[in-house]
Amino acid sequence: MKRMSRIGAILSFFFCLLIIPVDLYAIEAxxxxxxxLNAPLDTKDDYEVIPLMVGLNFDLKPLTSxxxxxxxxxFNFVLEPFFNIVSAPDTNIEVGSNFLFKxxxxxxxxxxxxxxxxxxxxxxxxxxxxxxxxxxxxxQAGGGLNFFIRDDVALICEYRYRHLSNCxxxxxxxxxxxxxxxGGISFFFE
Length: 190
Known about the structure:
The chain has 190 residues and is of the alpha+beta class. The chain has a single domain, classed as Beta Barrel (Porin), CATH 2.40.160.20. 15% of the residues lie in helices and 57% in strands. The protein has helices at 2-24, 61-66; strands at 27-40, 46-50, 52-59, 74-88, 92-104, 111-124, 135-137, 140-150, 153-164, 176-188. Strands 1, 2, 3, 4, 5, 6, 7, 8, 9 and 10 form a ten-stranded antiparallel sheet that branches. The protein starts with a helix and ends with a strand. Residues 1-5 have low confidence and may be disordered.
């Protein structure tokens, strides 16, 4: 029962992160991302994934301006649901959502680098020696570049480091550390 209450508290926290920005702030952009994820496993196999993600970028400037912070760049909360295809060691899936903060530096009108940091939750159908559960958490961080091809459309190139872990709810919990290379397109609404 104690484990279920911890899971409920964590899921409630992520639900609050989802509801507050959706209700109060406008969607600034939608990202469509795919790429390649690779992580070595203890069994000498690699954990290989083809990510398929949609990022909903919510403008946080109304919040930062209320507390007296005026960032020069764009500051977003990103809700990023995903359906990932696991190609190795066996064909499987990952389903879940990431909850990220993204800061974009206005380098030029065409080139705008950014940083992302946050966490996510997922269900993975792949059984691994490293993880005892299929429900896991995804702390992650990365950086990327928007290359604007029009005022409202940008190509995306991104690197992200991702750690997959069940947060010590059950052993083993060795974690799976992965490098992710992503590419895609972003549609801006402002």
